[in-house]
Amino acid sequence: NAGVTQTPKFQVLKTGQSMTLQCAQDMNHNSMYWYRQDPGMGLRLIYYSASEGTTDKGEVPNGYNVSRLNKREFSLRLESAAPSQTSVYFCASSGSTGVTGYTFGSGTRLTVV
Amino acid sequence: GENVEQHPSTLSVQEGDSAVIKCTYSDSASNYFPWYKQELGKRPQLIIDIRSNVGEKKDQRIAVTLNKTAKHFSLHITETQPEDSAVYFCAASRNSGYALNFGKGTSLLVTP
């Protein structure tokens, strides 16, 4: 039982490059989320998917796109990376939004140079 | 949208003392309040949560209290141990359909 699996764990990008962060969960959760964590800023919501087939913007969606590929997988895409997107990215899932705790993935440390 | 404020940003206590972290929220419709612990370089992990129909919840050395009228909730850790050293995040959300909004975190250091 792996829980929430994120790939890659580390990535260095050049400004303007694109990449997709992958996230998969095996807990049959309905809801999935992408957060970014920056020093002193806590966890800020980028996008979330309350259920398969739906996605919604969070607090900091600019520069990102998401795809809820199926119930298990929720990917985050950076189309043209910028240094301001240097951060640690966490994927999480929960049985439903708002009323149950999250299970987080191990994170992706992204550096944009 | 929901705004969650967390205080203090850093907290240092001696082993065996108690630690209290406080959070306030802005959305009166919020009714779910979890707390997460994040050790250095690791993922956040849920340690305790409380719902709006409950005023207090306890799990061994950890307790959370909620005051819906004042829109604040607190985490209490008693008999602190060095392994309690971590960053703690509070969060709040409404019912189904809304994601969690997190506070900025409290870095707790427990010194032997």
**Mean pLDDT across all residues of chain B, rounded?**
93
Largest sheet of chain A: 7 strands, mixed
Q: What Rg of chain A, in angstroms, do the CA atoms define?
A: 13 Å
- Rg of chain B (C-alpha, Å): 13 Å
> How many helical stretches of chain A?
0
Number of strands of chain A: 11
Largest interface: A-B, 27 and 28 residues
Order of helices and strands of chain A: EEEEEEEEEEE
Class by helix and strand content of chain B?
Answer: mainly beta
Share in helix of chain A: under 10%
Which overall shape of chain B is indicated by the principal axes computed on the Cα atoms? globular
Instruction: Kindly report the oligomeric state of this protein.
Output: heterodimer
β-sheet strand percentage of chain A: over 45%
Weakly predicted, low-confidence segments of chain B: none
Give the helix tally of chain B: 0
The strand count of chain B comes to: 11
Distance between the termini of chain A: 36 Å
Plain-language structure description:
The complex is a heterodimer of chains A (about 110) and B (about 110). With about 110 residues, chain A is an all-beta fold. Helix content of chain A is about 0%, strand content about 50%. Chain A is built from no helices and eleven strands. In chain A, the strands form two sheets. In chain A, strands 2, 4, 5, 6, 9, 10 and 11 form a seven-stranded mixed sheet that branches. In chain A, strands 1-3-8-7 form a four-stranded antiparallel sheet, with no helix packed on it. In chain A, strand 9 (about 85-95) and strand 10 form a beta hairpin. The radius of gyration of chain A is 13 Å and the shape is globular. The N and C termini of chain B lie far apart (about 40 Å). In chain B, the strands form two sheets. In chain B, strands 2, 4, 5, 9, 10 and 11 form a six-stranded mixed sheet that branches. In chain B, strands 1-3-8-7-6 form a five-stranded antiparallel sheet, with no helix packed on it. Helix content of chain B is about 0%, strand content about 55%. Chain B is globular. In chain B, a hairpin with a 2-residue loop joins strand 6 (about 55-60) and strand 7. Chain B has about 110 residues and is mostly beta strands. The model of chain B has no long low-confidence stretch (mean pLDDT about 95).
